[in-house]
Write a structure and sequence with these properties.
Chain lengths: ~120, ~230
């Protein structure tokens, strides 16, 4: 009986944490994608400023504290680098490079959640 | 450094709890699947301890999965003799009344040197002194020396284990299910499910114990197969 209870609790924990992880990552990166899409439109319109990116980076700093619990730290590092390069590009008026960095961020946002989805290619 | 220290504390605590839940056997003689579990646990526990870029939850989840697998296999082992053989193997009689069973040794990939070494480690220095040697599923060699056999000349064979009839045991004594049922009827045992263990040797010495009852030994009129 002790074994059965332990199995049920363990399976419930794994399934529960799995669903929470899936929901949390989808939600975080979904919101983040919308924000980056907004930046791309602002960049096209020429209204994107360094302060917009700083605000977004501050928000990201809060989010990543929790993300570190479920995502390998090395996967989070490229976001920090892209934010830094984006800020400098906007400060220097290098909008072409800023566009590249926004695209890099966008691709990261799309690819990272896919890595954590329950798919055959992710299992093997 | 502090991070590694705390990660080690958490992993150590988790492994300790899991080992405790797995029972005492895990720290003594291990069955094959228990060895696999222990080997995997050692690796799974070490990686997140040292690799700080991997979230601790990955290691904890893997440990939990290993624990679930161990618990499921333990339950299946209790429920089914067939599955117990799949997961843990079955004991092999390496030395019987006729001497060393070469075919059984070949099956177990055991050399004569291995056998002699195992005998010596049990203070037996001559094969001649051995009545029976059984290679247990945990890799230990159990030996019945000829001195001890004065009292109990043949090896008792398990015919009921954990409430289930052991078909292989019945084959060894050249009997069928009806033989066990006849004993149960005669002994007024309601069902085979209530029998924890029933063994019989070639001289008809019957031993059985029902759940939550005292064991019973008696001699029955039995001339079974004399091959074991």
């Amino acid at each position: 009986m002790k074994n059965v209870i332990a199995i049920i609790i363990s399976v419930a924990l794994i399934v529960g944490i799995g669903f929470a992880e899936h929901y949390y990552i989808d939600k975080i990166f979904g919101d983040f994608e919308a924000e980056i899409d907004g930046f791309m439109i602002s960049l096209d319109e020429g209204t994107l400023t360094e302060s917009d990116i700083v605000a977004s980076e501050e928000n990201w700093a809060k989010i990543k504290e929790l993300l570190h619990i479920i995502i390998p730290h090395n996967d989070i590092k490229p976001f920090n680098e892209s934010f830094s390069e984006l800020k400098v590009s906007l400060r220097q008026g290098d909008f072409d490079h800023a566009e590249v960095e926004l695209q890099v961020l966008h691709d990261l946002i799309i690819s990272i959640p896919q890595t954590y989805q329950f798919k055959i290619e992710n299992i093997f | 450094m502090v991070t590694v220290f705390f990660r080690t504390l958490i992993i150590f605590g988790t492994v300790l709890i899991i080992i405790r839940l797995m029972g005492k056997r895990q720290i003594g003689e291990m069955q094959p699947f228990e060895l696999v579990v222990t080997l995997i646990m050692a690796d799974v526990a070490c990686t997140p301890m040292q690799e700080v870029s991997i979230p601790l939850i990955y290691g904890l989840t893997a440990l939990l999965c290993v624990f679930i697998l161990h618990s499921i296999i333990t339950i299946l082992n209790k429920k089914s003799l067939g599955l117990r053989k799949v997961f843990s193997g079955k004991p092999s009689i390496i030395i019987n009344k006729d001497g060393i069973d070469f075919n059984e040794m070949k099956k177990q990939d055991l050399t004569i040197s291995d056998l002699l070494e195992a005998l010596r480690s049990q203070q037996v220095f001559s094969v001649e002194d051995v009545q029976y040697a059984i290679l247990e599923t945990n890799g230990n060699l159990s030996i019945l020396t000829k001195d001890e056999t004065d009292k109990n000349p043949t090896l008792p064979v398990t015919i009921v284990s954990g409430g289930k009839i052991d078909k292989q045991g019945l084959e060894t004594i050249v009997q069928d299910k009806e033989f066990v049922e006849k004993i149960l009827r005669r002994e007024k045992v309601m069902s085979v499910k209530t029998v924890l263990l029933m063994t019989i040797d070639n001289d008809g010495n019957l031993f059985y114990q029902e759940k939550n009852k005292k064991y019973v030994t008696k001699k029955i009129n039995f001339q079974g197969g004399d091959s074991w």
